[in-house]
Design a protein that fits this description.
mainly alpha; MetI-like fold; 2 domains; two-stranded antiparallel sheet; 2 strands; 77% helix
Length: 312
Amino acid sequence: MSNSNYSSTSSSTHRLIKNKNGSVKRNELRGKVVVYSCAVLIIIATIAITLFLTIKGLQSFIVNGVNVGEFLTGLTWSPSGEGDVAYGAFPFIFGSFSVTFLAALFAAPLGIGSAIFMTEIAKTWGQKVLQPVIEILVGIPSVVYGLIGLTVIVPLIREHSSGIGFSLLAGMIVVGVMILPTVTSISADALKSIPQDIKDASYGLGATRWQTIYKVILPAAMPSLATAVVLGMARAFGEALAVQMVIGNSKALPESITDQAATLTSIITLSMGHTTYGSLHNNLLWSLGLILLVMSYVFIIIIRFISSRRKV
């Protein structure tokens, strides 16, 4: 009787262990299905967006016979106007690159300087005060930046220049402030990743704190700092609403930093709702969007290249 009870108990235990293992395997299988499905959906979405925008962006060249060289280098934009049709997108391409690089010149020193302050100069104060401020800046909607630029920056430029205030300079300042949190956060993470042994070795050789920052920490973190700036530029290149509110949206090529200009994003948002689907004007706007997509891929390639050369 005892042996029978033991056999029954052993059999029950074996079934419990088997059921438990089976349940664990099923849970693992469900987890793998969910994870792989998410990964596949992201890949499919990316490929679908790329193919869709590529097909739509090429319609103006394939269907409407637009000359690619004239489209990229032309200075006059009048795809739906009376008289001669002109589709030169160079002023918008120039405006997008100008705002992007000027914003990077504005945000990079401030962002990297703030990161140095947070990680090397006043760590406690920087973490308690400056870090929350940066997080607040990240959460502010772009339309709010545009409104502030429209209310404060544009009138200020108007008072101190011969222009009307709407300008590349206004766009540079607004977008520079918008990408500042991105540059600062990534730069701070890069500086924190520098091993303490490297800093201690510099101090041990008699270097001051500023000499250590300038000659040891910054060179060691330079690839990551460059990545931070490029990521900020990628966001600046695709910004639409805030830039549209302060840049003036002129279709002419600007001659100075205080002149009105337009970007690829601003001209698309302003014009897309006023075009007929499948028309030349509509297809040209899709071509402008294709340029934005290509530049996004270029920024990603640059970031990947910098990351592959990162040495700490």
